[in-house]
Design a protein that fits this description.
two-stranded parallel sheet; two-stranded antiparallel sheet; 143 residues; mainly alpha
């Protein structure tokens, strides 16, 4: 699980879970649902893997719209669903860019070592990446 700010800068990377684990299960195990339910209001833009967590956190976790009709949906519903999905995707693109920057680091992209060390490597890469993104914030873009 990776948290970024609105500009896509990495703020937090959770430890890597062994095996496959659903996104929402990992969030619950880390105590994210309880933290958001009890804390101050903050909006978290999540992907479809966190569907249903918004109800547990008082609307603080925003996920893409759920498809109500599986078959024979009315045309107006399809159009509205597509607009809502694109609006959520447009707001969330910075989050995806932040995750992509993390994956671009060679240590993660070409990891050939033991899986037990992956959590330490992710944490080690997230620190310099966050520092790099913060330090380049004040610089003018190169042309």
């Amino acid at each position: 699980m990776v948290f970024t700010d609105a500009q896509g800068r990495v703020l937090f990377c959770s430890p890597v879970q062994p095996g496959s684990c659903a996104d929402i299960t990992q969030a619950r195990q880390l105590g994210l649902a309880q933290l958001l339910a009890d804390g101050s209001f903050m909006e978290i833009l999540a992907d479809a893997g966190y569907q249903g967590m918004g109800a547990q956190t008082g609307g603080r976790v925003v996920t893409p719209p759920h498809r109500k009709f599986k078959k024979n949906a009315p045309a107006w519903y399809e159009e509205r669903h597509e607009q809502q999905r694109k609006a959520h995707s447009s707001r969330r693109i910075r989050v995806e860019h932040g995750i992509a920057h993390l994956k671009n680091w060679r240590a993660l992209a070409r990891h050939l070592g033991r899986r037990e060390h992956m959590s330490d490597i992710v944490q080690a890469v997230a620190g310099p990446l966050s520092h790099q993104q913060t330090s380049t914030l004040g610089q003018a873009p190169r042309t």
